[in-house]
Amino acid sequence: MEKAVIYREKEEFKEIHLVLKNASSKQFYEYRFDMENFPNIRIKNIANLKGTGLTFENNKISGIPYVNSVHDLDIEFYHIYDENRMEIKKTHLFVNADPKDLWKNIPSDTNDIYYKPDEISYKGKFSDKKITIVSKRGRSHAHEGKFRDDDFAVDELPGGWSIVSVADGAGSAVMAREGSRLATVSINSFLNSEEILTRIEKNIEIVYRTSESSKEIQSEARGNIIRTLYEGILNVYNILDKTTTENSFSIKDLHTTLIFALLKKFDFGYVILTFGVGDCPINLISPDFSEVKLLNRMDVGEFGGGTRFITMKEIFGDDMASRFGITCVDDFSYLVLMTDGIYDPKFMTENRLEDINSWKTFFNDLAGNNDDRTKVDFVSDAYIDQQLLAWTDFWSRGNHDDRTLAIIY
User: Fold this and answer.
1) What is the pTM of this model?
2) CB count, 10 Å around CB of 327?
3) Using CB atoms within 10 A of its CB, is residue 245 exposed (0-12), middle (13-18) or buried (19+)?
4) Which residues neighbour 76 within 8 Å (Cβ) at sequence distance 6 or greater?
5) Residue 348 belongs to a domain with what CATH number?
6) What CATH number has the domain bearing residue 53?
7) Quick check: 263 pLDDT over 70?
8) Are residue 30 and residue 56 in the same domain, yes or no?
9) What residues contact residue 86 under an 8 Å CB cut-off, 6+ apart?
10) Computed from CA positions of residues 220, 222, 225, 228, in that sequence, does the dihedral angle turn out positive or negative?
11) Number of domains in the chain
12) Which of 21, 49, 152, 161 is the most exposed place for a label (fewest CB within 10 A)?
C-alpha cells in the first residue's frame, strides 16, 4: 500500500471526533470501539488506564472505575501495513460520581435508650426450608444520623411451626423504631405457645384433612383460626398502647405497619397463615415459577396512597377478617416479605406484585443482573445473608427508605 494512503488513513483516525460514553464510579463500565470505518487500523493499547479500575482488551474498555474524574487517555494504534510505527490518538473518559457518595452515613446514637443497629441480617432454618432476612437503614435516615425504623423477628415455634414478622415504622412517628420492634416481637411471642398453636392446628385439621366435614364446619374452623390470630394482633395493639402509657408517649408516636407469615408443613401440604396492615406485601411463588400470589391485603390506593398502622384502633373494625389469610400449597419456591423500601423501587405499583414477569425480573436482579453486579446465591448460600445485605444497598433515585427483605426458599 502506498505510504500516502497509509498516512491518510492514520490521520483520519486521529482526527475523528471520538466520544466515549460516560462511566459512573463504582458501577460496571464497558465500551467497545467501533472500527468498522477503519478496517486497517488496530488499537494496541490505551495508556493511562492504570489505577482507574479499567482495563483494555479485545478492542474494549471495561471494569469498575474507582472514583469520579476526567481521564486523559492515549490510544496507541498502528496501521496493519506499518505495524512497527505506533501512533497516539488522544481522547477523554468522564467518570461521574456515584450518587451514593453524595449521601452522608452518620451512625445513629448508640447511647439512646431505644437504639437499634443501623443494619442487621439473619439466616437460618424455617420449617424444612431456609430463610434469609435483612434490614438496612435507608439513606435518608443515614444522611441525618437517624435510626432504622424497620424491624423483623424470626422464630421456630413448638410443633414444627415457624414465624417471620416484618414491620415498617412510620417516618413521621418519633418512636417508630420501637413501635416496629415491639410489634414484631409481640406477635411472635404471642404465637410461641403450644396451647395456641394446638388450637390453630385442630382447626386446620378440620379444614384440610377431614373430608367428611361440611362446608359450614370448615367455615367455622377457618373462623376459629382467624379469631385466634386476631387475639394475637389485639395483644400487639394492647402492648403498644401500654407502652405509651408507661412512657408518656402518644400512640401515634409508635405508628408502625405489621405483616407476618406463620407456617407449618403437614403431610397434605404447607399451611401458611398471614396477616397484614399497611403497605408491605407477602408473596408466594410456585415451584416452577409460573404463578405468584399476594397473600395479604395491601393498604394502598383505597386511602389515596396513605397506609394504615397497627396502632390505629379503627383497623379493628368489621373488615378486620379480610386482613388474615389461610393458604395451603403442596410446595413453593419462595415466600417473600418486604417493606416499601424494597417494594417501591423494584415493583412500583401493587398490580406488579401479582405479575410473574415482574418477579422473574426481581430474581434476575438478585442473581446479579444489576448495575452493582451484586449477587445473592441461593444454592451456595453460606454467606447469603451478607450477600442480601449488600444487594439492598442498590441505588434507586428518589427511593431512600429503610429496606427490609425476608426470603424463605
Assistant:
1) 0.81
2) 18
3) exposed
4) 43, 44, 45, 46, 47, 86, 87, 88
5) 3.60.40.10
6) 2.60.40.10
7) yes
8) yes
9) 44, 76, 77, 78
10) negative
11) 2
12) 21
Residue 289 identity = F
Length of the chain: 409
**pLDDT for residue 67:** 86
| Amino acid making up residue 250 | S
The DSSP symbol for 169 reads B
* SS3 at position 183: helix
Distance CA 350, CA 358 (A): 11
Q: Cα–chain-centroid distance for residue 295?
A: 18
User: Domain boundary at 69, 99, 129, which?
Assistant: 99
Q: Where are the beta strands (DSSP E) in 296-391?
A: 324-329, 334-338
Residues 68 and 118 in one domain: no
Statement: residue 205 has pLDDT above 60 = yes
Cell of 275: 396477616
Q: Write down the residue that cell numbers 439513606 correspond to.
A: 139
Whether residues 93 and 139 share a domain: the answer is no
Average pLDDT estimate for 71-80: 96
The helix/strand count (H/E) of the chain reads as 8, 18
Q: Which residues on adjacent β-strands are paired with residue 407?
A: 132, 336
Is-contact 310 256, C-beta < 8 A? yes
Same domain, 318 and 216: yes
pLDDT of 304:
42
Contact criterion met (CB below 8 Å) for 273 and 134: no
Task: State the chain's mean pLDDT as an integer.
Answer: 95
Q: Are residues 79 and 192 in the same domain?
A: no
Is 71 in the same domain as 167? no
Q: Are residues 30 and 120 in the same domain?
A: no
- Whether the CB-CB separation of 286 and 332 falls below 8 Å is answered with yes
Helix axes 176-191, 215-247, angle to 10 degrees: 140
Say if residues 277 and 308 touch (Cβ distance below 8 Å): yes
Q: Are residues 244 and 355 in the same domain?
A: yes
- Phi, psi of 120, deg, nearest 5: -150, 145
